[in-house]
Structure formats: C-alpha cells, structure tokens
Fold:
Amino acid sequence: MAGNGPPPSEHKRRRNADEFEEHAVTVEDDGQVHGPPLPFSALYGPRTVDWYETWQRAPQAATFTVTDWQRLHMLAPIVDAYWLEPTTKLFAEIRLNESLLGATHVDRMRGRIKVDTPKKPARLPADVPDMAERRRRLMTDVS
Structure:
C-alpha cells in the first residue's frame, strides 16, 4: 500500500539543515470566511454545503490559491455523491484530495503549515460561569 511515510518529528535532531523550513507557513485561526462561494450550491445537499463552508473557515484556506479552490469545486460533486451513497472508493478520493489541501494535523505537518490558535483569556468574563469550578465544588460537597 502506497503512502507518504511518517510525518516529520517536531523534536528532530539533524546535522544538515531542513531545506524546506524557509517555506514553512504560519496561518492564524481567525474563523473568517476565505475564498469564493461554492458554485451551484443550490444543487448540493446541506452536508456538502457545510463541508465546503468548513473549508472556507479552515485556517489554511487563507493561503489557498485559485487552483486550490478549483480543486474543492471539483471535489464537491464527489462529496455530494458520497453523502447520498457512501462507498470506500468515493471516500478514498475525497481523503486523498483533502490530504493535499492540509485537512489533518499530519497533512499540515507534511506541508509545513503551522496554525496559530487564539489564546484563551486567563479569566472568564464575569457573566460566564466557570463550569469546571462548579463541578469541583459539587464533587467536594458530596464527600
């Protein structure tokens, strides 16, 4: 079975320099919509439209070029067919194409795409209950 091999280790120790490090890209997970709308979206089922909108909000979508969006547009009918009648053949094609666009953590490691996630506030706002603290109090009251 063909494959790409293991992902690069984050804690590698090498004597020779990584020639691709200069091509690494850092993207911010801003939750914004990137890219064009899905052409003929009315023809697709809601799960296919949700799939495309997920890709539009993906952090790596900020780096997509016209050809990347074209690939997603070409993949939409296959995704729609998969939702109508799931088969391993359709899923394999979807998985292969999504992998090339950086769908999973390992795919992004191979593509040297780093995602910066926004930092969570140290304290919750006053009007937001701390559910973890409430649970701790409830658990200590039981004893």
